[in-house]
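sanity check this:
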Amino acid sequence: MLRKCGFTLRKWSLNHPALLKHLSPEDVERKLLSFGNEDVIKAWNPTTDKLIFCVQINQDTTPTKRSVLRSITSMYDPIGLLSPVIIQCKIFMLQLWQLKVNWDDPLTTELKER
């Protein structure tokens, strides 16, 4: 139906490879990225049907309240799949505010372990 209107769908990827057999090879997504030991398309592993998210946190610097906030706000999650993780991070940020931690003071060992 979409093809009749000029909207040809491409880059199909399914977790059941038999369904892709009737499609032409140029319509099937073959680019896989590797995260650890899993091959994924963007954030989805079609073999195991799992979503995978990679968040990079700068471990080189001493964590501060500012770096925690920077890490939280760098997580891009337009449809809310990471909400359980982001909420826990925001709760930790709230605790930093309640403890009156300054923006550039290094976090204590106790706070780092939370």
User: Anything to note?
Assistant: The two ends are 53 Å apart (CA to CA). Residues 3-51 form one domain. The chain has two domains: 3-51, 65-112. The CA atoms of residues 2 and 8 lie 6 Å apart.
